[in-house]
Design a protein that fits this description.
It is built from 4 helices and no strands. It is mainly alpha-helical.
């Protein structure tokens, strides 16, 4: 297999996985309380557009943000 073809396949897989797990990443970045629910819906139902959209909607809503962790 040529190197270019292999690189295209690897980058294609990374692109698809990044977009597939986007709601989980957004929820983690925003520190939402129900990140477990978002991740479960994203992983198990993200293959359907509706499941992915529901997970993304849960990740971007403004209610229920966790306070930042304070280190002492």
């Amino acid at each position: 297999m040529k190197t270019r073809t292999l690189l295209r396949i690897v980058f294609g897989i990374l692109f698809v996985l990044t977009n597939y797990l986007l709601p989980t990443g957004v929820g983690t970045f925003r520190r939402i309380r129900n990140i477990g629910s978002v991740a479960a819906i994203d992983i198990f139902l993200g293959w359907s557009i509706i499941g992915w959209a529901v997970a993304l909607a849960m990740a971007v809503r403004t209610k229920g943000l966790r306070p930042p962790v304070e280190q002492s």
